[in-house]
From TrEMBL, chain A:
It comes from the Bacteria. The chain crosses the membrane at residues 12-34, 78-99, 111-133, 145-165, 186-209, 244-265. It comes from Anaerobium acetethylicum. This is Raffinose/stachyose/melibiose transport system permease protein. The keyword Transport applies.
From TrEMBL, chain B:
It comes from Anaerobium acetethylicum. InterPro entries: ABC_transporter_permease (IPR051393), MetI-like (IPR000515), MetI-like_sf (IPR035906). This is Raffinose/stachyose/melibiose transport system permease protein. Residues 69-284 form the ABC transmembrane type-1 domain. It is a multi-pass membrane protein. Its main location: membrane. The lineage of its organism: Bacteria, Bacillati, Bacillota, Clostridia, Lachnospirales.
TrEMBL record, chain C:
It comes from Anaerobium acetethylicum. InterPro entries: Bact_solute-bd_prot1, SBP. Residues 1-21 form the signal peptide. PANTHER family: ARABINOSE-BINDING PROTEIN-RELATED, OSMOPROTECTIVE COMPOUNDS-BINDING PROTEIN GGTB. This is Raffinose/stachyose/melibiose transport system substrate-binding protein. Keywords: Signal, Transport. It comes from the Bacteria. The lineage of its organism: Bacteria, Bacillati, Bacillota, Clostridia, Lachnospirales. Belongs to the bacterial solute-binding protein 1 family.
Length: 279, 290, 430
């Protein structure tokens, strides 16, 4: 009886805390949605920024997709992101596997060396990358963009995957060696599958980071038909004034793929670990 | 285990793909930056070698650079204290089993997927002293307090931080959520049987088990705090009167606006060095423990 | 052991294959295009053109039409947002990948490329092709940078005080003819609870539009020009007085609350909704008001009564040409720009141009009554180059941060003037 009461109180506290945080969180979100629904006239008419308009300006959403070419930008971004994320994770997990489970000299040193890429401000990389890429004719190619993304993403991938793989009990390796596994088999059939929660985390964060990257994309891609979402969204910003409804509608549409990826993969946090404990 | 201690070269093969891509993308910019930072250069014309001149000037005779360093350090402290606590708290809350969990997980993650440009626009409206949400809210509930949040140099940095917090919590929250899964229920139950209270259980059982998660979160938070750019550039562009200038915004101005490419690149190098000063000892210390 | 090595090798080989395949397919469209035009049409002139993305909806069909009309010329366009444009040009300049032609602003922004010998000097071309009759003198003048004609003038903009006629009338305010009258108009407006001047300080340049008028008022035309060319020190009494007055205006609340970090794109929100009465803007403001669905007849303009001839500030925009262009390429580029800025295209895509064109006898945009008036005023009163184009960016930024500091009371006018002079000296000794 007492336990049940305690449980109810716990639930109440939980919901209360969530409600308070959600209230704070919702104000900017609400503003974004309300603005996306306003026509330019509504926006300027002096009604509060934090209020829905009387009629929803669906034209903002339609214009964003058609006139604003958001659909094309999203397709391009999807191509780059879907190439980058799996390859980045694969390459990163190979390296993390070596750093945590194989005998490698200076593994901490190598790990730290791999972290530098995360620290380097991308602005500093623009000119050298532009010089090299223009020589190699890689400007305006998806490959060029995706290759640089993989390079810049390796640090983060290794940071996350190494952290997880370190925590996997060494007994598993022992058992695998005894069973006659080689390194590749150990990696591909055992360690990589166990790392599912870390891979899911990385997939979510990496997808987002790649999807929203502006700076490198703006320098490497200037062919209009190949632009990605963040660069494309900037074309919604006017020279002498921005149509905010249109911009916010574009922003709302552009986040859909990221949210889907997130909601699908966050489930795997739990499942993956259950598997690890069993084996 | 011990007989496998000898170095195996095939182990290094696993490092090769990452190594090749990483070296080809990162190394050129790193060396280029180190090299350029030793010169006086407008980005186009002749380069004039100045040795460490750019660095000396930054550290001895540049008020804005000093402000930027101070602001970045404040930002790092705020990030570690506030962002980490809030995201950890959210992760713990959302790790409970309850109705609508998936919704709330999506809800609190949502701000972090929004393009930075929109974040700046929305928060500028929220902070607007006349029509902004906060001041209007105070007015509605009868509190006579108006503040020009981001244009007051005393509170500006903190106001920007609050705006960025809204967006910055999502990422560490996910890392913590994933990390919490590595704490097996059995261990927690054992702790409960031993009579540990919830808070104690969390501090002495959960936190130590999430050590690797903390390393990851702290390292990424420090890097992102050091590199913070979009939200500052969007909300104040370093103003009012340089009071919210960050190393990244200052680097940007020097490189792309003032054509002092050498100075700007030196700022970038200082940023990397500062990050390494914090992260390298931290990571190598925690790596040695095992 | 062997097996694992083989596997790794296999993985690596596949990865590399995939990589090369991708390079092939990713780069193919571009390669194909250049090969096509090189092989298929031996002497096609290929030109790349960078411009602002806000003009995309006009430039795209125009380029398509031009390319199909001229089989020997192939124009490819890239679009950038305002800041992206500035950064992309800097990166391209540093890595020697500038396009054949690119949009640019006048003054210190475009001047940087002329100064460093990256732009084609059009002086001779202009003389041969009678540009002095083709373009307005003001525009040509503003496109002359570092003693070169640095670009093809595409717009000539003048700034004036836009005001709400209805608000002025309701409060019995006449258009001010002297600075004193301007001040008393502000007093009346403020008493009625209307913010006199809508401005926004993020990035500095919008507030600067008012500050430069104050400097013009206290310094007069001659001294003001000398300040901008660094012939006179900014610690000058006139500058200090201008800063004093600006600080006084800030204290009296003549600008919106918290304006120093407000976005300049938002100044219209106050004037359109009527919470503010004036805004210093260029002639493009008419088009903006129309797009907002506001009533254009409520808006009129007057020249700020700074004294003397009440000069307006002005700036130009242009298309710059790469210095490496051959005569043939230059001619092709000019042909394209003449087509782009032809009367037919301007008529068809009016909203994507900064009208009127800087040409002699250019048509005025319809339904925008203030445009013609402002240009007439600028011809009568004369102009000065807008401050952020007259000063190098690093000096202008010090002025901007001085504006913030004055508004927040962190600096005295003397200190502000001194800080700008220090920045000028640092710039000159660079």
């Amino acid at each position: 009886m007492e336990g049940k009461q305690k449980k109810i109180i716990k639930k109440l506290v939980l919901y209360f805390a969530l409600a308070v945080l959600a209230l704070i969180w919702v104000v900017p979100m609400f503003t974004l949605v309300a603005t996306a629904m306003k026509s330019r006239q509504d926006f300027m008419s002096g009604i509060s920024l934090f209020q829905f308009p009387e009629s929803i300006a669906w034209s903002n959403f339609i214009n964003a997709l058609t006139k604003g070419r958001l659909f094309d930008y999203m397709r391009n971004d999807l191509i780059v992101t879907c190439l980058k994320v799996p390859l980045g994770i694969f390459v990163g997990s190979l390296a993390s596997f070596a750093l945590t489970r194989l005998n490698i000299r200076y593994s901490t040193g190598i790990f730290i060396f791999f972290l530098i890429g995360m620290m380097l401000p991308m602005q500093a990389a623009l000119v050298p990358i532009n010089v090299i890429f223009s020589k190699l004719k890689l400007l305006n190619t998806y490959f060029g963009l995706f290759y640089v993304y993989v390079g810049f993403g390796i640090s983060y991938a290794i940071l996350i995957l190494r952290g997880f793989m370190k925590g996997i009990p060494k007994d598993i390796d022992e058992a695998a060696w005894v069973d006659g596994c080689n390194k590749w088999q150990l990696f591909w059939h055992i360690i990589f599958p166990i790392s599912k929660p870390a891979v899911a985390t990385l997939l979510i964060t990496d997808f987002l980071a790649t999807w929203n990257e502006y700076l490198l994309a703006s320098v490497i891609i200037n062919d209009n038909t190949k632009k990605t979402v963040p660069v494309g969204l900037m074309t919604f910003v006017g020279e002498h004034g921005t149509d905010y409804g249109y911009l916010c509608a574009g922003v709302l549409i552009s986040v859909i793929p990221v949210l889907i990826v997130y909601l699908v993969f966050q489930r795997h946090f739990v499942e993956g670990m259950a598997g690890a404990v069993k084996s | 285990m011990n007989k496998k201690k000898k170095i195996e070269f095939s182990a290094y093969a696993f490092l090769i793909p990452a190594g090749i891509i990483y070296l080809s993308v990162i190394i050129a910019p790193v060396f280029y930056s180190l090299y350029i930072s030793l010169f006086k250069w407008n980005g186009i014309g002749d380069m004039q070698f100045t040795g460490l001149g750019n660095y000396v000037k930054l550290f001895t005779d540049d008020k804005i650079f000093a402000i930027a360093i101070k602001n970045n350090l404040i930002w790092i402290a705020l990030t570690i204290i506030v962002t980490m606590s809030v995201s950890l708290a959210l992760a713990v809350l959302l790790n409970n089993q309850f109705r609508g969990r998936t919704f709330f997980r999506g809800f609190f993650y949502f701000p972090c997927v929004i393009a930075p440009i929109a974040v700046a626009i929305i928060w500028r409206w929220i902070y607007n002293p006349n029509v902004g949400f906060i001041n209007q809210f105070f007015k509605t509930i009868g509190i006579d307090y108006a503040q020009s949040w981001i244009s007051d140099p005393k509170v500006s940095l903190f106001a920007i931080f609050a705006a960025s917090l809204w967006q910055a919590v999502g990422q560490p929250m996910i890392l913590f959520l994933a990390g919490l899964q590595s704490v097996s229920v059995d261990v927690l139950e054992a702790a409960t049987i031993d009579g540990a209270g919830s808070v104690k259980k969390f501090l002495y059982v959960t936190v130590p088990l999430m050590k690797e998660t903390f390393i990851i979160v702290i390292a990424t938070l420090i890097v992102s705090a050091m590199k913070v750019f979009d939200v500052v550039q969007g909300l104040t562009a370093g103003g009012p009167a340089n009071s919210t200038q960050m190393l990244s915004t200052y680097m940007y101005s020097q490189t792309f606006q003032y054509n002092n490419v050498g100075t700007g690149t030196a700022v970038a190098c200082v940023m990397v060095l500062m990050m390494m000063l914090v992260i390298v000892p931290y990571v190598s210390f925690t790596a040695k423990e095992n | 052991m062997m097996k694992s090595k083989k596997l790794v090798a296999l993985v690596l080989a596949t990865a590399m294959l995939a990589a090369t395949a991708l390079t092939g397919c990713g780069g193919s469209s571009e390669k194909d295009r250049s090969e096509d035009s090189a092989n298929g049409n031996g002497n096609a002139v290929e030109l790349s053109f960078w411009t602002l993305s806000t003009r995309q909806n006009a430039v795209e069909p125009i380029v398509e039409e031009f390319n199909s009309q001229n089989e020997d010329i192939e124009i490819t366009v890239s679009y950038y947002d305002t800041d992206g444009m500035k950064d992309a040009c800097k990166v391209a300049a540093s890595s020697d990948t500038l396009p054949s032609m690119w949009f640019n602003w006048g003054g210190s922004l475009g001047g940087f490329y002329a100064e460093n010998g990256l732009t084609y000097d059009l002086t001779d071309y202009a003389a041969e092709n009678d540009w002095s009759n083709k373009f307005s003198a003001g525009a040509l003048n503003l496109c002359t940078l570092s003693d070169q004609l640095a670009g093809y003038p595409t717009s000539y903009n003048v700034l004036d005080v836009y005001y709400r006629q209805d608000i002025f009338e309701q409060n019995g305010i006449a258009v001010p003819a002297t600075f004193e009258e301007f001040e008393s108009a502000c007093v009346v407006l403020k008493e009625k609870g209307i913010t006199p001047i809508s401005t926004a300080g993020l990035n500095g340049w919008h507030v600067m539009r008012f500050v430069e008028l104050l400097i013009e008022h206290y310094a007069g035309a001659e001294l003001h020009d000398k300040l901008n060319t660094f012939e006179e020190s900014w610690t000058n009494e006139a500058v200090v007085k201008a800063f004093e007055k600006y600080q006084e205006f800030c204290e009296k609340g003549y600008f919106p609350e918290g304006f120093i970090t407000a976005d300049p794109n938002d100044t219209r929100m106050a004037t359109v909704s009527g919470t503010a009465a004036m805004d210093i803007q260029g002639q493009w403001y008419d088009g903006q008001i129309l797009q907002d669905g506001a009533d254009i007849s409520q808006f009129s303009t007057f020249a700020f009564p700074s004294g003397g001839t009440d000069r307006l500030s002005a700036f130009a925009e242009m298309v710059q040409f790469n210095k490496n262009l051959s005569d043939e390429e230059l001619a092709a580029g000019m042909k394209f720009l003449d087509f782009y800025y032809s009367d037919e295209n301007v008529a068809q895509y009016a909203e994507y141009y900064n009208l009127p064109l800087p040409k002699t006898g250019a048509a005025m945009p319809e339904g925008q009554p203030n445009v013609e008036m402002m240009l007439e005023t600028s011809n009568e009163n004369g102009t000065f180059t807008i401050t952020d184009q007259a000063l190098p960016t690093e000096v202008a930024d010090v002025l901007f941060s001085a504006q913030d500091a004055l508004a927040n009371g962190q600096m005295t006018p003397e200190e502000a003037a001194q800080s700008i002079q220090d920045a000028i000296e640092a710039y000159l000794n660079k």
